[in-house]
Amino acid sequence: MTLFAVFLCFVILQRLIELFIARRNEQRMKAEGAIEFGQEHYPWMVSMHVGFFLCLIGEVAFWQKSLSPFWLILLPVFLLAQAGRIWALTSLGKYWNTKIIVLPGANVVRKGPYRLVRHPNYVIVTLEMFVIPLLFNAYMTAAVFALLNAIMLSIRIPAEEAALKKLTEYEHTFGKSGKLSPKMLKKFDN
Question: Which of 134, 158, 137 is nearest to 146 (CA)?
Answer without folding.
Answer: 134
